[in-house]
Write a structure and sequence with these properties.
single chain, mainly alpha, two-stranded antiparallel sheet, 14 helices, 3% strand
């Protein structure tokens, strides 16, 4: 509970400012620093032609080293901060770049605008910035689904999970989680290069997101127009997703908005026959993306109010 107020400050800064381009040009971004370490370890330790077991062991070591560096850095910074309100504010500032509420909203909004104008090419280009599927294979409803799925999944990965681990462990917790999430996004894939080396990254990410994904689903359900329908969709369809976690916020989003998500898609000319989430729902369009963004904003406001209530209760004790 000691870290709730700094995280509220971080969330407010992120919602208002995002991560300004001027700051990015000057100091880049902590996730970029983490990514540079992961890329270096991948180049040096993930040897093509090495036995599967050796590459898996190297991947475990790389994951532990990356998370360890992030946690140790966060702990060192936190230990150097002053006590009192100055420490609270500075902790919030250091946590600020480790949230992605504003950037996620803006990236998804950039898909809705060209789609609403009938510019499918522009919408495909915008959605290609946030999903890995082949944009050339996407029609308008598939573009909208991809954007909404990314919003739902990354609300957990980019906002709720960092806040969850930050509330429990402070700056080391949020920094460690971002390392875990960046590892998964870079090497946690079932590809010939990363199936062995990225095994640990994917498993650790699954564990770290187990509770946050379910909390995100609850936030979406409670912030939506039909909580019972959303929760029923979660109970029925969350387990259909190939990820043990991503299906929860996606199902809650689909049930809240009465749309269908997931379904067949193409990755690098490879067909992936994913099951539908809320199969009886309508196909979304640009208005569906805007509705999803509205639900996302209401969920984050509700989450911030809960954090504020926790901070007030802690202060009163």
């Amino acid at each position: 509970m000691l870290y709730v107020l700094p995280l509220l400050i971080a969330l407010a800064l992120d919602a208002l400012l995002g991560w300004p381009d001027a700051l990015f040009r000057r100091i880049s971004h902590p996730v970029v620093w983490i990514g540079a370490l992961i890329a270096r370890l991948d180049r040096r330790w993930n040897r093509e032609g090495a036995p599967f077991a050796r590459r898996r062991a190297a991947g475990i070591a790389a994951a532990l080293l990356t998370v360890g560096v992030a946690v140790a850095t966060g702990a060192a910074v936190q230990a150097l901060l002053p006590a009192g309100w100055a420490g609270v504010v500075l902790t919030g500032i250091f946590c600020w770049p480790l949230l992605a509420a504003r950037s996620l909203h803006d990236h998804v909004a950039r898909v809705a605008r060209p789609l609403a104008a009938g510019d499918l090419k522009g919408a495909r280009a915008a959605v290609a910035m946030i999903v890995g599927r082949d944009p050339a294979q996407l029609d308008a409803p598939a573009v909208a689904r991809a954007a909404i799925e990314s919003l739902a999944e990354n609300a957990s990965d980019g906002v709720v999970a960092p806040l969850f681990w930050g509330v429990i462990f402070g700056l080391p917790g949020i920094a460690g989680y971002k390392a875990v999430n960046t590892l998964d996004s870079m090497i946690g894939h079932r590809t010939p290069r990363h199936e062995a080396f990225g095994w640990a990254a994917a498993r650790i990410d699954d564990a770290a997101n187990l509770i946050p994904a379910r909390l995100t689903a609850l936030c979406f359900a409670l912030a939506g127009p039909a909580p019972r329908r959303a929760l029923a969709t979660v109970r029925r369809d969350a387990g259909l997703h190939r990820s043990p976690n991503a299906g929860w916020p996606e199902a809650a989003m689909a049930g809240s908005l009465a749309i269908r998500l997931s379904g067949p898609r193409v990755y690098a000319n490879r067909q992936s026959d994913e099951p539908w989430v809320n199969a009886g729902g309508a196909d979304p369009d640009s208005a569906g993306i805007r509705a999803a963004l509205g639900l996302y904003r209401r969920a984050l406001i509700g989450l911030a109010l809960v954090l504020a209530l926790l901070a007030a209760i802690w202060a009163a004790i």
